[in-house]
Amino acid sequence: MVKAVAAAKKTRSTRTQKSDHDRIIGALPKPSWMVNDSPLDNEWIVRTHGGNVRKGDVTVKFDVVIAPGVRSIDLEIDLITAKLLAFRGLTGNDARYDSGATIPINNRNYFAFVRWRHARGIERNAELTKDDIDDLVKDLEVGGIVGLPPYRQRLGELIQKIETGEFEIPFYCKGNKKYARKEPLANALGAPHTRSLPASVSHDLDDFIRGQGLSIQPRKGAGQDDEEDDLVNEIEEGALSENRIISFLTAPQLLFYYRKYLTHDPIKFEPFEGEDGISKIAKSICRVAAERSFTTPAYQACFLVNQAITWITTYFDEIRDFTNDLDETIKKYEALNHWRPTEAAFNERLREDRDKYTTAPGSWWPIHPSYFAAPGWTTNVSEYRPALRPVLFELLATAALVVIAAFAARRKEEMGSLKADCISTVDGEFWLETWISKNLHEMDKIPVPTTVKKAVDVLLWLSEEGRLSSESAWILDFAEFVVVGEGSQASNPAYRFYDGLDRFAEFVGVPLIDGKRWIPKPIEYRRFFGMTYFHRFHYPSLVALSDFYRHFNPTRTRGYITEIAYGTVVTRQGESAERRKRAERRVDNFAQDRLKDFEECGLQFRLSIVRDAITGEGYLTGFGGTTIVNDAKKHVDDYKAQINLGPGEDLDRPTLNNVLRVMVKPMSFEPHPAGHGLCKCTGKTQDLATANCVRSWKEAYPNAPAPSGPVIEFATESACGLCVHNMQLQCNRRWWANALEHEEHEREHALLPFLREIAAQRAAMIDGVLKRCHPDPKS
Q1: CB 209 within 8 A of CB 216
Q2: Which residue has the higher pLDDT, 662 or 644?
């Protein structure tokens, strides 16, 4: 933090006389969310989560390139505007944002707008006309956001200057090669960096540089964690998404929204017809339609979670034992004044522990005999045995985070808020406390299974030295486990969510999709709970996943994230009615947001089941399942008739998905926690009247209020197997086969006659379900 503030001081504008900037911006009070010294600084550090998230501060840069030879600090009017927009976005009654995370995005969008305006020769926002905004939309549709300035024309001019000797390509030497410094070249084109250039312009620039005998340093990999890189990657040429357009067009719209504060350069009209107008424009010119998020592949996600559980429950104890033994062995060699004690210790441990630890696909053993990773580790993870450092701080740490996400429905930012005291015990249950950055903006607790407690213990062990050295409580603060010798320039391990998740998935061998590797993104952490909740019995080979879910009923977590959250609002004494309403709205948005993530996973689950059943790739039986399959076939046939297709002609996969999605969206396919089937019963009166579990409940509690849904305590296999709402999938066959084997054993060996009779009746019922619902796999 001290370094960041010092950097901000260096960017303080140095004006000898009081300018408009100093007069207007200098009059602003320093807000509580500002870490740097003053609004006059040209680099603001914004505390986005009140200090509740590790590395939660973001940087807002006001000194950026606008055009060749022109920086934003040279355009005083726009510098003032940009700072006022950032300040007002978080301050005052008309502040639009609860978190400062949006401010850097808005700031970059505003300066992108200024680059376009400046290239058109419009010096001020006050000079803009409606025709100019119409032209902006046309230019946006043709060239995308990165294509708004005339980069192609400027590239030609720059090449001419280089060829005539007017401009020299800056370079640096590395080994026996000369590498071009590309950022000054991008600046010469009027771009802040090469990543903000159109791909075609960047490629042509690279070709020209190589033609001059210089080399190109490869770009940082896709698994980067740099916030600015991530945001720039979203606006690559040809990927003009609806959401990205909305974000960009919001910048000029804010000029009108905050016009009373922008008296130094007021816009004379509203650029767009409100937020609805921006959405309509974005929808009409986008190349990628808006979606809440991309689809997470179910099998691959469950495989990833299963491997993470294995690392936490099996490999962790082995890794800890090896690390402790290695530390003692290093000390032994240091006492002997060995010239390379770490290497000698590794070789000894590998000899002594050759058959001690688990060797399996995706396991950590045998380890590479070194602490630091081999040079090729980051580019070809699956081909290298891992060194100890990446085992600890990439693979093991990622496994812990995947388990926490899958069993506690936590997001990346929420896991970044985990502290040493995040686990508490109430009435024998474990509760996990995290900061909820989206909508709620306060600490929240959720019940979790022992698996999450184990994952937190892993992170506590990994971060013990780091927390001591940094005097912090963050369990993602790591420090080196092995002393690597005097003069080492190694810094403490910095966990990167993108790199960690990508490398863990590659190392454990997540199955390919159509021959391509699925690269999970941290945004998908929020979906792991929903994917494993619905699919935990769908993939019976994932033994650990099914077993650990059976030790903990995930329905409790589901209820918490989708229903109980609203009840967590506490009315504080003395709060105004309006303040209470805002708090209630935030909590409601929080619950609804979680529910959307969860239900989207459920929709994918229902869609895949029904689609596979009617295409023959799977089956859906049981009384309820048969009804749904028949309805789905009729639904598809009706659609075929509308588009003049014959019954024997097949729809392509995307069209079939769209047709079925409409049908299955309002349905409910709820997996029974025991794994013997699914239930399609909803809370509708007609469904509840025919549900066997509800009938059994009413017989037991005749005077109690009617339930609002299926009653899980009375949803036994005998009640469900004969219920009109019961559905059976191939993954449920294993449960029924095991149950039949058990009852047949009881029928033969029970000590008392009436027990043998009960077992015979149950065996007959189970056998009937098997024959009716589950085709013999051998036939």
Answers
A1: yes
A2: 662
